[in-house]
From TrEMBL:
Domain HTH luxR-type, chain residue ranges per copy: 844-909
Presence of keyword Disulfide bond: no
Protein's name in the database: LuxR C-terminal-related transcriptional regulator
Listed InterPro entries: AAA+_ATPase (IPR003593), AAA_16 (IPR041664), P-loop_NTPase (IPR027417), Sig_transdc_resp-reg_C-effctor (IPR016032), TPR-like_helical_dom_sf (IPR011990), Tscrpt_reg_LuxR_C (IPR000792), WH-like_DNA-bd_sf (IPR036388)
Record keywords, A-Z: ATP-binding, Nucleotide-binding
Length: 922
C-alpha cells in the first residue's frame, strides 16, 4: 500500500496522458534508499499497461557502467517487444549504430511507449547517450522515459545531470520518507491492534526509529517486539534481525562516499560534527554534506546522530576490523586535539586496542579519574589497563598500576591486591617514584598490610614526603585516581552536616597514640577513652566522604563505634554506607560494609544474621580466594557456626581457600581468633592456644594490642583453663582487665570478669559474675551475657543456692536459644536432663547408643554429679526408679559404677538439681 503517494501517482498519470497525446516526456522519481522508489515505479507501470501503453522495464545494475550499451541491449531482449522491433534493436546495438533507438520511435507510432529504468544512475554512458539522442530527436514521439535514482547518485557522467534534465518534457518526483502521520497509518495497517491511541503511540516510536523509511518500517514489524506484559507491544529490534538487514540494504544502495561517511559517523558517535566527519575519512565538506543528506533522507539519521543503536551496528558492519581500528585511533587523536573530554577520547582508544600510543597514557588516566567520579569503576579499569600496556617507562607503569589497583578495589579486591604486589616489587627495585609511593601506602593500609605500609611510609619520609596515609592528598591540585578530591568535601544530602570544627583537614593519626604509624588508621582514635574514640569516629564519618582513598578511614570509624558500645549508631552508619556503595556500583565496598554488619550482628549475639551477612560479603568478592578481605567474613562465619554448634559447617569454612598474604594482614587476625575458638569448641585446645598467642604477637608487633580491638588475652585464658593451667589464665585475665579498665570497655571488661570468676574461689564467683552480668547488659551482647548468666547459675549451684541457680540458668538458656547458640544451650542443660519440652540433643549420644530416653536422662544427670535423690527430684520419679534405670544403664554400657560413665555425658557447666520446685520453675 502506497501511503502519502497519491499526489506523486497523479503527476505520473498526467505525464502519461501528455505522452499519449503526442509528446516525449521524461520523468525522474528521486528518493533515499528504501523510500519506495521501486514500489512507486511498479505501481505506475501497472497503470500504464492497463491504459494500453507498451511497457519496457529494465533495472539498472552496478555492473552496467563497465558494459557499453548494456542497458540498451537488455531493452532489446524485453519480451514485450514485437519480434521485428527486437531484431532491429539487436542489429543496431551489435553494429554500435549511432541511433540504436530508432526502432523504439517507430514502435511508439502504434501505441504509447513507456521505457522504465530502475536505478538509472547505474546505466552505462553509451546507453545514456542513446537515451539523450532519443529525447532530443523524438520530441513529438509518444514515448515516456521514467527512471528512479537516489539523491546525488548521478555518477561521473554530467549528461544525466544537465542535458536530460534540461529537456522541456522533464518532470521530477521526490519521494520523501513518510510523515509521522503516515507512519501511524502504516502501523495501523501492518499491526494487529485497532486502538487508535495505541497506534498513535507506537507510530511515534516507529517514526523515531525509522524516520519514516517504508522499507525500515516493514522490517521493524518483522523484528522483535516487546511482550504485552512489559507495557504493550513495542518495537525492539536486535542486531542481525530483519531491521538490521534492512539498514544494511539501504547503506549498500548508496554510493561509496556516503558509506564512508556512514562508517565515520558510526565510529564518532555523539562526537560527530561535519568538520570531524570531513577530516576522518578524508572527504571534502561538500561530499560530506551530500552524504549526510542522503542518510537523513533514508531515515537512518536525525541530524548527525543515528536513530537507533542497530543502525549504528549496521553501519559499522561495512568496515573491516583494521579500518575500524584505524578510524578509532584517528578519532581519538582528532578529539584530543580539539580538547574533548578524556572519556570521549578514551573510548576511541579502547576501541583501537590492543595497543595505544604513548601520548594516550595521560589521557587514559584522566578518563579513569572522570569515570570514578561517575562511579563507573569498570570503565576506569578498562582505561587504566590499556594505559598500563601503553606505558613505556617503568616509573610511569608503576604509578598507573597503583591507580588501577585502587579502581579494582571497588569491584575485584583480589585483582587489586595482585597489582599491589607487583607495585611493591617496583618499589624495592626503585622503579616507583617517591611521589607515587603515597597512594601505594594508602592501598596497603586499606588491605591491612601494615608492616609493608610502614616500610613504604618510612621510605617516603626518608625522601622528604611525610604524607602517605588515607585522607587528603597534600596537593589537591595534583590529579589523583586514588583520591580524586580533597577531604573533607561537602557532605552528601543523606549525611548529617559536619560540626564546625570538622572543616579543617586532619589526618586520622594526628590525635592517635603512636602517631605516624601505618596502624593508626586501624587503631583506636582519640585520647584513649571509649567516649572520646566514639566521638572522633563520629566526626570522621560526618566529615569524610566515601572515596577510594578514604574507605579504610570510614570503615574503621564504624568499627570504632561498635567497639565503644554504640552498636545502634554503628549499625545505622553501616547500613547508610552499604546503601551508598550499592548505589555507586562498588561490590568491593559492599563486601567491606557487609563484613562489618556481620561483626555488628555477632556483637549483638544474632548468630544467624551474622552468618547471612558474612555469606553476602563473600558473594560480593569475585575470585574471593585471592583477597585478604575474605578474612573478616570468614571469621564471622566461623564464630557463628561454632557458637551455633554447627561444627561441620565451621570445618567447611576452614577449607575455604585463603591467600598466604592473609596472615600478613590485619584481616588475618580476626580469622585466627575465629579459628582458635573453633579449635577450643572441638577440644583441640593446644591448637586454639597457638592461634590466640599468634594473634597477640602480631597485634603487639603491629601496634594493635588493644583490648577492644583484639581481646586475645581472654581468648588465651579460656584455652589455659581448658588445659588446667590456672596461673596462665589468671595472668592473662589480669592483664586484660587492667587494659579494659583504662579504656572503659564494657564488653571486654564483662568477658574478663566472667573468666576471672573461673579462676576465683567458689564463694567469690557469684559476686564476680554478677558484676560481669551487669557490665555486659550495657553493651548489648546477648550471647556473652548468656554465657555469663550460665556461669552465674553454675556458681549459685556450687554454693547450694539451687533455686536461684535454676532461675538464672533458665534465663541463660532462653537467651542462648534466641541467639541461635545451640552449643551454649547444650552446655547449660541437655535435652534429656529436662522434664519435658523440646530441647537440643545432648553431647555423647553415640556413647549412649541402646539406652532408652529415660535411661539417658538418668545417665546424664548421674555423670554430672547428681545424687540419686537429686535425680529423682529432678525427673519427678522415685529413688527406686532411678536405681533401676542406673542398673540397666550399667549393664548396657558394660560398666559397674557411676564413675565409669562416659565423660562425653558431662557438660561444661554442671547440671545438679535438688528439688522438684527447681525443675518446675524452669
Amino acid at each position: 500500500m502506497l501511503i502519502e503517494r497519491s499526489a506523486h501517482t497523479a503527476l505520473a498519470e498526467a505525464t502519461l496522458h501528455e505522452c499519449a497525446a503526442g509528446a516525449f516526456r521524461l520523468l525522474i522519481a528521486e528518493g533515499g534508499p528504501g523510500c519506495g522508489k521501486s514500489e512507486f515505479l511498479k505501481r505506475f507501470l501497472g497503470i500504464a499497461a492497463e491504459s494500453g501503453a507498451v511497457v519496457l522495464d529494465v533495472p539498472g545494475l552496478p555492473d552496467d557502467r563497465a558494459t557499453p550499451l548494456g542497458l540498451v541491449r537488455r531493452l532489446a531482449e524485453h519480451p514485450a517487444l514485437p519480434d521485428r522491433t527486437r531484431e532491429r534493436l539487436r542489429l543496431a546495438t551489435a553494429q554500435d549504430a549511432a541511433d540504436a533507438t530508432e526502432p523504439l520511435r517507430a514502435l511508439s507510432i502504434s501505441a504509447p511507449l513507456v521505457i522504465a529504468v530502475d536505478d538509472l544512475h547505474h546505466a552505462d554512458q553509451p546507453s545514456l547517450r542513446q537515451l539523450l539522442h532519443l529525447a532530443h530527436h523524438a520530441r513529438s514521439a509518444r514515448i515516456l522515459l521514467i527512471g528512479t535514482e537516489g539523491p546525488y547518485d548521478r555518477g561521473g557522467d554530467p549528461l544525466l545531470g544537465t542535458e536530460l534534465l534540461r529537456h522541456p518534457g522533464f518532470r521530477r518526483i521526490t519521494l520523501d520518507p513518510l510523515s509521522p502521520e503516515g507512519v501511524t497509518r502504516l502501523v495501523g495497517t501492518l499491526g494487529t491492534l485497532r486502538d487508535q491511541q495505541a497506534d498513535g503511540r507506537r507510530g511515534a516510536e516507529c517514526y523515531a526509529m525509522t524516520g519514516g523509511n517504508p522499507l525500515l518500517l516493514r522490517a521493524l514489524f518483522q523484528d522483535r517486539w516487546a511482550a504485552p506484559d512489559t507495557g504493550g507491544r513495542g518495537p525492539r529490534p536486535t542486531a542481525g534481525g530483519p531491521f538490521h538487514q534492512a539498514v544494511a540494504a539501504c547503506l549498500a544502495r548508496t554510493g561509496t562516499p556516503t558509506r564512508d561517511v556512514a562508517g565515520a559517523l558510526a565510529v564518532l558517535g555523539p562526537s560527530a560534527t561535519p568538520a570531524l566527519l570531513s577530516r576522518l575519512p578524508g572527504l571534502d565538506t561538500a561530499a560530506v554534506a551530500r552524504a549526510l543528506q542522503v542518510l537523513e533522507l533514508s531515515g537512518l539519521t536525525d541530524g548527525h546522530r543515528y536513530r537507533h543503536p542497530v543502525v549504528t551496528a549496521a553501519a559499522l558492519d561495512h568496515l573491516d576490523a583494521d579500518d575500524r581500528r584505524l578510524l578509532h585511533e584517528r578519532s581519538a587523536l582528532l578529539l584530543h586535539d580539539q580538547g574533548a573530554r578524556a572519556t570521549e577520547v578514551g573510548e576511541h582508544l579502547l576501541a583501537a586496542q590492543p595497543t595505544a600510543p604513548a601520548w594516550a597514557v595521560a589521557v587514559l588516566r584522566d578518563a579513569a579519574a572522570e569515570a570514578l567520579v561517575d562511579d563507573d569503576a569498570p570503565a576506569a579499569i578498562r582505561y587504566l589497563d590499556l594505559a598500563c600496556r601503553a606505558c613505556q617507562e617503568p616509573p610511569q607503569r608503576a604509578a598507573t598500576r597503583i591507580a588501577l589497583a585502587a579502581a579494582l578495589w571497588r569491584v575485584n579486591p583480589s585483582a587489586a591486591e595482585h597489582h599491589v604486589g607487583e607495585t611493591l616489587a617496583d618499589l624495592h627495585t626503585g622503579a616507583l617514584a617517591d611521589g607515587d609511593t603515597a597512594p601505594l601506602v594508602r592501598l596497603l593500609i586499606g588491605f591491612g598490610r601494615l608492616e609493608e605500609a610502614s616500610r613504604a611510609r618510612a621510605r617516603l619520609e626518608a625522601a622528604g614526603h611525610p604524607h602517605s596515609g588515607p585522607g587528603p592528598d597534600p596537593d589537591p591540585a595534583r590529579p589523583s585516581v586514588v583520591h580524586p578530591c580533597p577531604w573533607p568535601v561537602e557532605p552528601e544530602e543523606n549525611r548529617p552536616q559536619p560540626a564546625p570544627d570538622a572543616a579543617a583537614p586532619r589526618e586520622p593519626w594526628d590525635e592517635t597514640p603512636g602517631a605516624g604509624t601505618a596502624a593508626a588508621i586501624w587503631g583506636i582514635p582519640g585520647p584513649g577513652t571509649s567516649e572520646a574514640a566514639a566521638d572522633e569516629a563520629e566526626r570522621r564519618l560526618r566529615a569524610c566522604p566515601l572515596l577510594d582513598g578514604t574507605l579504610a578511614v570510614v570503615a574503621n570509624a564504624v568499627r570504632t563505634l561498635l567497639r565503644a558500645g554504640r552498636t545502634a549508631e554503628a549499625d545505622e552508619w553501616c547500613h547508610r554506607l552499604l546503601k551508598e556503595a550499592t548505589t555507586r556500583r562498588s561490590p568491593g565496598w559492599e563486601a567491606e560494609f557487609l563484613a562489618i554488619l556481620a561483626e555488628i550482628a555477632l556483637r549483638k549475639g544474632a548468630l544467624p544474621d551474622a552468618e547471612e551477612r558474612a555469606r553476602q560479603a563473600l558473594a560480593c568478592l569475585p575470585g574471593r580466594g585471592g583477597s585478604v578481605l575474605v578474612g573478616g567474613p570468614l571469621a564471622s562465619r566461623l564464630h557463628a557456626y561454632t557458637a551455633m554448634g554447627r561444627y561441620h559447617d565451621a570445618a567447611r569454612v576452614l577449607h575455604h581457600p585463603v591467600p598466604a598474604a592473609l596472615f600478613q594482614s590485619v584481616y588475618g587476625l580476626a580469622y585466627l581468633r575465629a579459628r582458635g575458638h573453633y579449635h577450643l569448641a572441638t577440644d583441640h585446645t593446644r591448637a586454639a592456644l597457638r592461634d590466640f598467642l599468634a594473634v597477640g604477637r602480631m597485634a603487639q608487633r603491629w601496634g594493635l594490642d588493644h583490648p577492644a580491638l583484639l581481646p586475645w588475652r581472654t581468648d588465651a585464658a579460656q584455652a589455659f583453663l581448658r588445659l588446667g593451667e590456672r596461673p596462665g589464665a589468671a595472668r592473662m585475665i589480669t592483664e586484660q582487665l587492667s587494659c579494659a579498665r583504662l579504656w572503659s570497655d564494657p564488653h571486654t571488661r564483662g568477658v574478663s570478669l566472667r573468666l576471672r570468676a573461673r579462676v576465683a574461689a567458689a564463694p567469690e564467683r557469684p559476686h564476680l559474675l554478677t558484676q560481669a552480668v551487669e557490665v555486659l547488659q550495657q553493651c548489648g551482647d546477648r550471647l556473652e551475657l548468656a554465657r555469663a548468666l550460665a556461669d552465674l547459675g553454675a556458681a549459685y549451684q556450687s554454693v547450694g543456692e539451687s533455686v536461684r541457680a535454676n532461675n538464672v540458668r533458665r534465663r541463660a538458656w532462653r537467651m542462648a536459644e534466641e541467639c541461635g547458640a545451640k552449643a551454649l544451650c547444650d552446655s547449660i542443660l541437655p535435652r534429656q536432663a529436662m522434664c519435658g519440652g523440646d530441647r537440643p540433643d545432648p553431647p555423647g549420644r553415640d556413647q549412649g547408643a541402646g539406652l532408652s530416653e529415660s535411661e539417658m536422662r538418668v545417665a546424664i544427670l548421674a555423670a554430672n554429679g547428681n545424687s540419686n535423690r537429686e535425680i529423682a527430684l529432678r525427673l519427678c520419679v522415685t529413688m527406686s526408679t532411678v536405681e533401676q534405670h542406673l542398673t540397666r544403664v550399667y549393664r548396657k554400657l558394660r560398666i559397674s559404677r557411676r564413675q565409669q560413665l562416659p565423660k562425653s555425658l558431662i557438660g561444661p557447666v554442671g547440671t545438679r538439681a535438688t528439688n522438684h520446685k527447681e525443675l518446675s520453675s524452669f
